[in-house]
Amino acid sequence: MKAFIFDLDGVLVFTDKFHYQAWKAMADRMGIYFDETINNRLRGVSRADSLEIILERYEGVPLTQEDKDALMEEKNNTYRELLATMGPSDMSDEVRSTLDELRLRGHKLAIGSSSKNTKFILEQVGMGDYFDAVSDGTNITRSKPDPEVFLKAAEFLGESPENCIVVEDAHAGIDAARSGGMTAVGIGEAAGYGKTDFPIKTFSDLLKVPAV
Ligand code: BG6
Ligand code: MG
To answer: Which is it for strands 109-112 and 3-6: parallel, antiparallel or unpaired?
Structure first.
């Protein structure tokens, strides 16, 4: 029986808009150009790597690591204020019923997210105790496209990587799954990516993925 490892942001919940708003507020205050296209490059990427991508457009005096830490903190504070407005209705019925059905069929279910806010988000949507394992930004040293976060999730589940199906919306996440030796299901942006094993249009299509 295959195990599922779900990315969180952009797959189970739509926090992308909050990431965008929080980075945008920081970028505007700093006078840095930032738009939705640049924001798409931040999917699945760690907070520190995201800042580096945003700073490609920065033209001011050189920033120290302390300055960068302060910018990340500023973004994260805004982001968490936005996350605090979330509730159970921010996880769709389609996602909930599909997860329940996969569990009923005997699959183990885990989270594999780069976010250090994973547990906070899961609690906000009332899923704090739902998953069999949670691997997130707090237990890794290398962010996607490195497979570490998914390999840790498989380890926490006691499963071999070949037995895991990763569900992702980010190219970096699909690359991470494939280089970790896992099957990669792509939704949203990742559905059109060449390295995706199984593209799906909507979350409940997971019930039709071969071997499920
Ligand atoms: C990923 C998001 O899930 O988490 C990225 O797709 C984000 O956009 C990353 O940068 C890190 O999130 P956080 O919550 O630790 O800043
Ligand atoms: Mg994602």
So the answer is: parallel
